[in-house]
């Protein structure tokens, strides 16, 4: 029998104690950096121990810290995977810029620019659904004041505080791994391309701003991997940017635009062993129609140009589940592993273990069971109820066991 491993894509449900502790932290004068607090550090360390222990109890093979080191002060939060970097980056300030409703920009062939965050083609096709807070598309936090987005007003760089916070993540996670008997795990990190999506009021050139974020992120990647821990580079922008560009670009223009973001990742991880790198991409976490998503068949080969060993992507989301067939035509490098989403964050229905097994087998039959790690589409924490999130992970492990028995 070949054991098919399991993991998840990052965020796991926080305890209420940790959510409250994050929400109640006092901020520095800049308005978005939390002040240091020994009591908060105790709550965080205990919570990381607990979330890793629970993964061990369920049977998750490759655990994470649940992104607990990334501040999330509300039960619903789609952005902590991204906003955590603000505390760790110099050159940012609150300027009054409304990131979500900024004046839209229009792209021209061969010259793509991102529009405002909410000027999405999917949103324009379903305005009633996006505007309905009850039966429509939930996209906001229940405490929206906790999601503050600064702008770059000076040279961006990984800060001394960033080094301290990253070291704290490593310490907490390493302790939790050892305590639960794990030999390996991963910490999620931001991609340069995702960092460069904030408003730039300093560089004035998108390519220069992207280059600057390579230098911001590299110290975090290096610190984590130097500790022997895998990094997961979160870059939903590789796929998700497509819906945020108006008018809709050609496939060729979009791939050229995205190639710069792939190259930025490779520059940032240069010299880091591939076996310590996994990439995660998706089409965004919000529970919307997603009819304007970029097709995976156009993106898969470019995704594989990232110098990682593990490639995580959505595959259970019903808008993309059919795309497992892409791997019949795309050649996975021999030393690489795919980490497809097998259970979804976008439905409250818990996938049956037999369905989990069937989804796993689709990929295993193509690339081999030893080169598949069954995962979640995206992070589960802050997106679905904790009871449902943990039930999905239990079903994932049970289904992986069923599939493993067939190889």
From TrEMBL:
Pfam family, one: Meth_synt_2
Record domain Cobalamin-independent methionine synthase MetE C-terminal/archaeal: where: 214-400
Entries under CDD domains matching the protein: CIMS_C_terminal_like (cd03311)
PANTHER family (alphabetical): METHIONINE SYNTHASE, SYNTHASE, VITAMIN-B12 INDEPENDENT, PUTATIVE (AFU_ORTHOLOGUE AFUA_3G12060)-RELATED
Name of this protein: Cobalamin-independent methionine synthase II family protein
Organism annotation: Dermabacter vaginalis
Lineage, opening ranks: Bacteria, Bacillati, Actinomycetota, Actinomycetes, Micrococcales
